[in-house]
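Q: Predict the bound structure with NAP.
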Amino acid sequence: MNVHLISGFIPASDQYKRQTMVQIGVIGTGSMGGMLVRTFIESRAAAPEEIIAYNRTTSRATALSRETGIRIGRDCQDVAREAGVVFLCVRPCEVKDVLRELGDALSSQILLISIAAEVPLADLHAWTDARVVRVIPTLTSEVLKGASLVAFGERATAADRDLVRTLLKAIGRAVEVEEEAFELLTLLTSCGPAFIAAMMKEFAAAAVRRGAVSPALADLLVTETLAGTAGLLEKEESSFDEVISRVATEGGITAKGVAVISEEGPRVFDAMIAAALGEEE
Ligand SMILES: NC(=O)c1ccc[n+]([C@@H]2O[C@H](COP(=O)([O-])OP(=O)(O)OC[C@H]3O[C@@H](n4cnc5c(N)ncnc54)[C@H](OP(=O)(O)O)[C@@H]3O)[C@@H](O)[C@H]2O)c1
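A: Predicted complex:
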């Protein structure tokens, strides 16, 4: 697959505040919708009074409103009527029905940001008159880290692009890619936290199997090492190889362990990616 970066990384900025006061709508305040609301507010990309949300189960939206101070719409249309930009945060199988429910309320005056995996821009364009962007966020934005993938639809304007970049860079990094690359790259970003946690779980479990460390202590030590390694990698954009070479002296114990990962890793990770892409079904 040819992966093409339309533009490189947009660095995260702390305490960013939007210059323009566009009302932000959020439809679906589940795991990801709730996370976006919280992090837009925490990062000061938006003030609570600039966000209006609606969720099918109203108690969920009400709880988020109590927690964050955002406004709650009476229904989906209410959100679309009040907002200039609407984040659609429902499950992929629910997208078409919600867009049908929104009907004329979602006009070409509105920028629709769909975060649904597996619903292509072509379908979104067919189901709505709104200007459309696809974003694949990551749960790690909860701690204002991680990369959101972005693909702009053909109706998106230059101002839309600026707005989306501004909002997303407040909660991590925004990386613009061709939509065709989403399926593979989502494994590295949005699925990534689960893959990395699963790897770290096995790392800790291997130490526990040796019998001299409790699961709690092994988990703590691996978590601290993971956070510290991420810090080293981020510092001056260090590479994986640089970190390896700083720890693994030739012929030493770390080098022996790294050699095992280099030997076994390709088989494990090729299989993991193939399984996640559904190639083994
Ligand atoms: N989870 C991730 O890490 C991740 C990463 C990237 C992208 N995504 C995408 O994000 C989207 C949401 O995922 P999620 O994990 O946040 O799912 P989720 O927790 O199930 O949230 C979906 C929310 O949408 C609400 N909803 C459904 N139909 C609705 C309607 N007609 N009107 C208003 N609200 C409605 C649901 O309400 P109820 O409370 O009534 O169920 C629920 O709160 C998915 O499309 C997924 O592909 C997820």
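A: The chain has two domains: 5-182, 192-276.
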